Amino acid sequence: MEKTPRGTAVGVDDPYAFAGVCDHLTSEGTCRYAFDHYGHDPEFARERAAEEYACLALEPDADPESADPSWADCPHFRSRTRTRACVRCGLEEKLDAHSSERPLLEEHHLSYAADGETCSHEITVFLCRWCHAKVHTSWARLTDDVSPDPEAIAELEGRRGRELEELGFESAAERYGEE
Predict the structure, then answer these.
(1) Where are the domains of the chain?
(2) Mean pLDDT of 56-75
(3) pTM, whole model, 2 decimals?
(4) Nearest by Cα to 80 from 48, 22, 133, 124
(5) Which among 86, 80, 91 is positioned nearest to 151, based on CA atoms?
C-alpha cells in the first residue's frame, strides 16, 4: 500500500485507480497547464507548444472523453475530486456558512513523492474525518465496503436539525419575547 513520507498508509495500492481526468486537460485534449503556467516549467511548455499543446498522456488524435490515458507519463498531472462525499463510506458534506464547525470531509492525498521531497502528481479524494483517521492509523482501504461511522451520522443529523430550525418561521416578536 502507498505510504506518506511519515510512513502512514494512504489506503490504496495504485493512486491512479482513483484518479479522474487531469484538472489541466481541456475538452479538446489540450494541456492548459503548459499554456497557463508557462513560467513554472518552460521546457515542458515549449514541448507542448511545439505539439499544439496536445496532452502528453493522450494518444495523438484521441478523444479525451473515451481515451484511456497514461496519466503517470505527464509530470504535471493533477486530479482533485470535486464530489463532496466520502469515497469510502459515502457520507456527504453538510456545511453551514455561518458556523465555524469543523467540516465533515477532509481532502486526502493519495500520492506522495517516493523521495519524500517533491510530489509531482497531486491525486486527492475526499474522506470523512472518521474514515480519514481509520485509513491513516490502520490498514483500512478506500475500497472497503463500509457504512458511515455512527459518530459521523450523529454529527450529520445534528447539522441537518440546525438547518431545519433555521427554515422555520418565527416572528420578530416571538424571537425577542415581545407581545
Answers:
(1) 21-80, 85-179
(2) 77
(3) 0.77
(4) 124
(5) 91
